[in-house]
């Protein structure tokens, strides 16, 4: 049998894709797993694409698909990955009928409307990624009932209201990424009894206020704590040094006051300490040389001893100020790396 050349194989593959995305009904009725990710598919998804009874997994990541998500779903589906497209409209409420769903990834689209509370009916959900859309409204408190949830990514939307206190009971949660929204109110972690596996907490770029709760120091698995660019007040908890696994601490661009807790010096895993643009004062605890520190915008804060007030030891120098935006950008990238490390969501796990 003569083997196909690369060009012939490519043409055959493109023809197969065209057939699958034609308007012919029932073309996917016997398919269990459909992976057409990272191609150049365009147009709208066929209305029956997600509905065949045999369909268990679909991955159309990174194409150019437009229009709404079809509202008819196979009851056999455990993985839906439609991220990185141009999909619009709202998330269908009927998705709550897919009770065996494990992974729902719709990030990087133009989806609008609210997050349907019906998602809470999918009790087996492990991963929800709705980030980088145009979703708005409150986050349903019912999502706090998803006891198997490991990662919840809602960053870069237009979500508002308070962060549901029910999230404090997600005992398997490792990643909670709510950055770049408009959440208000106080941090909902004053009573933490279940979040012992949480390793990434991203709340950067919201409108959260009040003090940082003392109970934050009970999250001993945290490697990233990003509370930057909010409206937090008061002093940093003195017990924050108990977070011995913490690698990135970002409290920048808030209204924090008082001294930097001396316990910060005992955080042996710390690599990034970002405290810029607050009202901190006193002496900055001595930290290992490998820790990157940015405390610009705190005129009362001194690095080193009281007698060491030279311009290069004073945080808030002009050179540091010019680097502030760069530091913030790097912190975001670092946060993403940590989040993926913690969750361990490699694609091969999508089929489990």
From TrEMBL:
Compartmental location: Membrane
One Pfam family of this chain: LRR_1
Keyword Membrane: yes
Positions of transmembrane segments: 326-345
GO molecular function, one term: protein serine/threonine kinase activity
Principal location class: membrane
UniProt superkingdom: Eukaryota
Keywords: ATP-binding, Leucine-rich repeat, Membrane, Nucleotide-binding, Receptor, Repeat, Signal, Transmembrane, Transmembrane helix
Protein name from the UniProt record: Uncharacterized protein
Cellular component terms (Gene Ontology): membrane
Topology versus the membrane: Single-pass membrane protein
């Amino acid at each position: 049998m003569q083997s196909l050349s690369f060009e012939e194989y490519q043409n055959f593959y493109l023809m197969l894709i065209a057939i699958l995305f034609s308007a012919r009904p029932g073309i996917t009725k016997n398919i269990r797993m459909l992976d057409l990710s990272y191609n150049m598919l365009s147009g709208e998804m066929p209305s029956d694409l997600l509905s065949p009874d045999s369909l268990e997994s679909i991955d159309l990541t990174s194409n150019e698909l437009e229009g709404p998500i079809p509202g008819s779903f196979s009851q056999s589906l455990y993985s839906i990955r439609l991220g990185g497209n141009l999909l619009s409209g709202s998330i269908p409420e009927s998705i709550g009928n897919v009770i065996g769903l494990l992974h729902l990834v719709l990030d990087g689209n133009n989806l609008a409307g609210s997050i349907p509370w019906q998602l809470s009916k999918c009790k087996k959900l492990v991963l929800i990624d709705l980030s980088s859309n145009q979703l708005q409204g409150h986050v349903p408190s019912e999502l706090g009932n998803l006891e198997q949830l490991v990662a919840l990514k809602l960053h870069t939307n237009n979500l508002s209201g308070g962060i549901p206190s029910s999230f404090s009971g997600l005992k398997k949660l490792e990643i909670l990424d709510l950055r770049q929204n408009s959440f208000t109110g106080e941090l909902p972690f004053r009573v933490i009894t279940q979040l012992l596996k949480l390793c990434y907490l991203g709340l950067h770029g919201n409108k959260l206020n009040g003090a940082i709760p003392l109970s934050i120091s009970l999250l001993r698995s945290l490697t990233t704590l990003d509370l930057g660019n909010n409206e937090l007040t008061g002093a940093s908890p003195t017990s924050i040094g108990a977070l011995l696994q913490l690698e990135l601490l970002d409290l920048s661009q808030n209204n924090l006051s008082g001294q930097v807790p001396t316990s910060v010096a005992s955080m042996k895993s710390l690599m990034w300490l970002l405290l810029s643009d607050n009202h901190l004062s006193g002496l900055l605890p001595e930290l290992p040389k490998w820790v990157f520190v940015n405390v610009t915008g705190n005129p009362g804060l001194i690095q080193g001893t009281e007698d060491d007030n030279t311009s290069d030891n004073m945080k808030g120098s002009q050179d540091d100020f010019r680097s502030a935006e760069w530091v913030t950008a790097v912190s975001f990238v670092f946060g993403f790396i940590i989040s993926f490390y913690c969750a361990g969501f490699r694609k091969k796990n999508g089929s489990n």
